[in-house]
Amino acid sequence: MARTRATGGGSGARKTSTKKRSFWALLRKWLVRLVLLAIVLPPLLTTIYSVVPPVSTLMIGRYAQLLWVDRQWVPLERISPNLVKSVITSEDSGFCVNDGVEWDALQDQVEALSEGERPRGASTITMQTAKNLFLWGDRSYVRKALELPLALMLDAILTKRRVLEIYLNIAEWGEGIFGAEAAAQAWFGKPAKDLTRVEAARLATALPNPLARNPASPSSGHRRLASTNLARVKGAGPIFGCVLDN
Predict the structure, then answer these.
(1) What is the structure's pLDDT at 3?
(2) What positions does the domain Glycosyl transferase family occupy (predicted)?
(3) What whole-number distance in Å separates Cα of residue 58 and Cα of residue 72?
(4) Whole-model pTM?
C-alpha cells in the first residue's frame, strides 16, 4: 500500500511539472508572437499609410471612449504653404535634410539628462508622427526610446511630403480637433488652404500645448511666439524644398 501511495504521489508531481512546462512553453510561444507582431506591424502599417489616410492613437482612444473627434483629411496641396512653413520652422527646421532624427539635438538632451537637467525638445516632425501613429501620449523615456527606430523607419519608407501630410492631418489642435483642415475650420472658419501667415503662425505655435493655446484668441505669450515664428519663417531660407515647389 505504501508503495502504491508513493507511486501515485510521484505521478501527480510529474503531471503538475508537465502542466507547468506546458504553461511556460505556451507563454513563451505567445511572447515570441507578440514580439514578432511588434516588429512586423509598424512597417506593414506604414506601407499601408503611404496610400491610406491613417488615424492617430489619440484619435483611436477618443473613438473607444465615444468622445467627439473632428478630423477632415486633406492632401498637402490643399493646406496653405503658410502653415507648412510655420510648422516646419517651429517644429523641425531640419526636416528636409535629417533622417527622421536630429542626432546632435538628441545628444544635447542626453548630456543634459546625465547632468541632472530636465531634457527638452529634440523631437523632429517625423518622431512626433511616429508617436502619434504608434505610441502613447504620456511622456516617458521608454516612449522616447521607441520613437527613434520608428522615426527612422517612417523616413525610410515614406517620402518627406507624405510624412508631413500625415503629421498635418493627425496633429491635435484642440479638444477633439485633429488635422489642419479641422483646425482651420474650428478656429478661423475657413479651409486650411486659405490660412494667412498670421493664422498659420498661431496654429504652428499652438502645437506644443494645443489644449491650452487658443489660435483664434491667443494670449500675449502666444502672440509673441507667433510673431517670433513669422520672423523665423521670413529668414528661414531654402529649408522647405522637399515639400514645397517654391
Answers:
(1) 47
(2) 68-223
(3) 15
(4) 0.84
